[in-house]
Design a protein that fits this description.
The complex is a heterodimer.
Chain A lengths: L2 H16 L9 E2 L12 E5 L5 E5 L8 H10 L20 E5 L2 E5 L9 H17 L7 E5 L18
Parallel strand pairs in A: 5-6
Antiparallel strand pairs in A: 2-3, 4-5
Chain B lengths: L2 H6 L1 H51 L9 H11 L3 E5 L2 E5 L8 H10 L3 E7 L2 E13 L5 E13 L1 H20 L1 H30 L14 H58 L5 H32 L7 E4 H11 L6 E4 L5 E4 L1 H18 L4 E7 L3 E7 L33 H11 L3 E6 L5 E8 L6
Parallel strand pairs in B: 7-9
Antiparallel strand pairs in B: 1-2, 1-5, 3-4, 4-5, 6-8, 9-10, 10-12, 11-12
GO molecular function, one term (chain B): kinase activity
Catalytic activity (chain B): ATP + protein L-histidine = ADP + protein N-phospho-L-histidine
Pfam families (chain B): HAMP, HATPase_c, HisKA
Chain lengths: 162, 470
């Protein structure tokens, strides 16, 4: 063999060996960290000044949107100094459906049972839990009442989170 | 043919070059595609593993008690799967036997970057993927802070490595598939190059052997075609100059033959006149007699010269004929010496019985030339030996003079060659040795000159005994 050929073989061997198998690597970052742990959900009530007030409950875990909605419908309690603009109901179960970029709340209320501020309470509480469990902040909320209302299809967002 | 010289051949070199280029090219292409495919495979596998782990953590996280107790950590670990380690401050929950592989650099990277990190390591002879991620707390407004819970997972990459090995194997197979076509192409290319080269070589051999009509067919307009055309032109020009030279040589020989022939008639008249002059020389005055003697001597020399010239012309023209008969060499040599009165000046050693077929007249010419030459130029004693073997008869003529100098030896048989430029006037014609050599060759024998042991010049005439009738 000629000298040139002799020089080619080692190069070839190095190339072949370098391409073989899975090589160890350094530490590299990848993707988004999971989230969702919390001491409890944050509920939104109306403060003495007539604005929305967050109220973090210590339930021991974040829980789900329906659980948070049930707590919201149950009311702020006497000692908190907060009030709610949602009429008290005996049944606190709220149906939740997730669409593309939207959360649909089926509340056991009529449009007359809530004020505009009361609707914001519903929207903000649902969005808060959604974001805390890793959801997108740009998600909108539709509030469906037991009876059809003119603006129940409106996609709403929370005024405190904009 | 040995292996090494075979490797130097054009065909082998073309073959090796073709195969190397093909295998290197195909191998590089296959290898690079296999390499990028395996890199992509590893990357997607890592991404899939990390995302799956993060999804599982994210799915179970809202249901966990926070701050977590041991039960919460165990639940999180179970959700992620085997070989997983979950820590929260001093607490830990480990499952699987490989969680010890988690490196310190991975832990610090999880704390520093607050996002999932991965690292590939090799342990126990297998590749592993380490995944580490913090669990974050997200405020309702989207702000994220670390919760202090960290999840580490160790995953075996052996399956991925096997698939990569499969890719590499198919790359090698692809490169090997390119080999047979490369060999075939190389052989075809070598044949198309080698055929004209071989024809050219054959033509050159025929030219060297003297066949000046040899030509190669021009195979086209490439470099080999140009080379062939050039060789053909060369052969053409060599042939024409050879023809011209031969014509000139023939002209020169014919001229010499014509001249000597034309000189013969006036010379015979002159010879007759000289005979008359010789008979009258006795009655002349001494001065006139000396002039007459000189004229007679020179005329005889002229006659000898013209006869020798005509003899040489006959050799050149190829018209010299051998009249062979059974002759006793010793007797013929003795007769030759006796006829010239040299028997008492020459030591002859000639045993009887060396009988062979030869031309008696030409043997006489040869012996007379050699002995006359020795008597004229060498010192006595001059020895003549006749030796007979089964195949040939050797006739040696040696003198005791100074011998032949080295620069003279190659030229002694040249025509009109004078060893001593100052001694221009010698009785010989200057053609004697040349004629002797031609005669020896005509007999199928040879005549050589060398220096004898005693230092004198020695001429050896060899005549074969198996001469056919000519």
């Amino acid at each position: 063999m000629t000298g040139a050929v002799k020089r080619i073989w080692p190069v070839l061997a190095v190339v072949v060996l370098a391409g073989c198998g899975i090589q160890p690597s350094a530490v590299t970052g990848a993707g988004e960290a999971p989230t969702g742990v919390a001491a409890g959900p944050t509920l939104y009530f109306v403060g003495p000044d007539g604005g929305l007030r967050p109220d973090q409950r210590r339930t021991g875990g974040l829980g789900t949107v329906p659980e948070a909605m049930s707590l919201l419908l149950t009311g702020p309690g006497e000692a908190s100094g907060l009030r709610t603009e949602i009429a008290p109901v005996s049944m606190t179960r709220v149906g939740v459906a997730y669409g593309r970029g939207v959360i649909r709340l089926h509340v056991p209320l009529t449009a007359d049972d809530v004020t505009a501020l009361g609707t914001d309470q519903l929207v903000c509480t649902a969005l808060g839990v959604h974001v805390q469990s890793g959801g997108s902040q740009s998600t909108k909320v539709q509030v469906r009442f037991t009876q059809p209302a003119p603006d129940s299809d409106r996609r709403r967002s929370c005024p405190l989170m904009e | 043919m040995t292996g090494r010289s075979w490797l130097r051949g054009l065909r082998a070199r073309l073959l090796v070059a073709f195969v190397l280029v093909t295998v290197l090219g195909a191998g590089a292409a296959a290898w690079s595609s296999a390499g990028s495919a395996s890199r992509a495979l590893v990357a997607t596998t890592e991404q899939r593993i990390t995302e799956t782990a993060a999804d599982r953590v994210g799915a179970v996280a809202p249901e966990l008690v926070y701050p977590p107790d041991q039960g919460a950590l165990d639940r999180l670990r179970a959700a992620v799967g085997g070989n997983t380690l979950v820590t929260y401050r001093g607490m830990r929950s480990a499952g699987g036997s490989r969680t010890g592989l988690v490196t310190g650099s991975l832990r610090s990277a999880v704390r520093d970057r607050n996002r999932p990190v991965t690292q590939r390591i090799t342990a126990h002879g297998r590749p592993w993927l380490l995944v580490g991620m913090p669990v974050m707390i997200t405020a309702p407004d989207g702000e994220r802070t670390p919760s202090g819970i960290e999840v580490y997972s160790v995953r075996d990459l052996s399956g991925v490595e096997r698939r990569i090995d499969g890719l590499a194997g198919s790359a090698v197979a692809t490169a090997a598939l390119a080999l047979p076509p490369a060999v075939l192409l190389a052989l075809l290319a070598a044949r198309s190059v080698l055929r004209p080269v071989r024809e050219l070589r054959d033509t050159a051999r025929r030219l060297a052997a003297g066949d000046l009509d040899a030509r190669s067919p021009a195979p086209g307009a490439d470099e080999l075609g140009e080379l062939t055309a050039t060789v053909n032109e060369m052969a053409e020009s060599v042939q024409s100059s050879m023809d011209a030279m031969r014509r000139m040589q023939a002209d020169a020989r014919r001229f010499a033959a014509d001249v000597s022939h034309e000189l013969r008639t006036p010379l015979s008249t002159l010879t007759a006149v000289m005979e008359v002059l010789a008979t009258a020389a006795d009655r002349m005055e001494p001065d006139d007699r000396e002039s007459a003697q000189m004229a007679i001597t020179e005329t005889r020399r002229l006659v000898t010269l013209v006869e020798d010239l005509m003899e040489v012309s006959r050799f050149d023209a190829g018209t010299a004929r051998l009249r062979a008969e059974e002759v006793d060499a010793a007797g013929a040599v003795r007769d030759c010496l006796r006829a010239r009165g040299w028997l008492d000046r020459v030591e002859l050693e000639a045993p009887e019985g060396a009988v062979l077929r030869l031309d008696r007249r030409r043997l006489d010419v040869m012996v007379a030339n050699l002995v006359g030459n020795a008597l004229r130029h060498g010192e006595p004693p001059v020895r003549v030996r006749v030796l007979a073997s089964r195949r040939q008869v050797r006739i040696e003529v040696a003198d005791s003079g100074p011998g032949l100098p080295g620069d003279v030896l190659p030229h002694v048989f040249d025509r009109f060659y004078k060893a001593d430029a100052a001694r221009t006037r010698t009785p010989g014609s200057g053609l004697g040795l040349a004629i002797a050599l031609e005669n020896a060759r005509l007999h199928g024998g040879d005549l050589t000159a060398d220096t004898a042991e005693g230092g004198g010049a020695r001429f050896v005439l060899r005549l074969p005994r198996d001469l056919e009738d000519l």
